[in-house]
Known about the structure:
Helix content: 40-55%
Order of helices and strands: EEHEHHH
Oligomer: single chain
Strand order of the largest sheet: 2-1-3
Strand content: 25-35%
Number of helices: 4
CATH topology: GIY-YIG endonuclease
Amino acid sequence: xxxxxxxxxxxxxxxxxxxxxxxxxxxxxxxxxxxxxxxxxxxxxxxxxxxxxxxxxxxxxxxxxxxxxxxxxxxxxxxxxxxxxxxx
Length: 88
């Protein structure tokens, strides 16, 4: 079983959201149905990045790191080309 750390982007305002889950497809549906308070205002959401982990603790630690300022900088570098092409 895999545990996923994912990044979704709002089609409404280009906001990024970092989360983790066991079922990626179901979780994306929940975000787009407005079932998550944190992402309700930005729907619809699109999955732009995910990582698979074999351990729940590793996935939670990775999610927590990606939500820090250093983690956000890493994401910006990793998604640089995608984010740049979105602005064109």
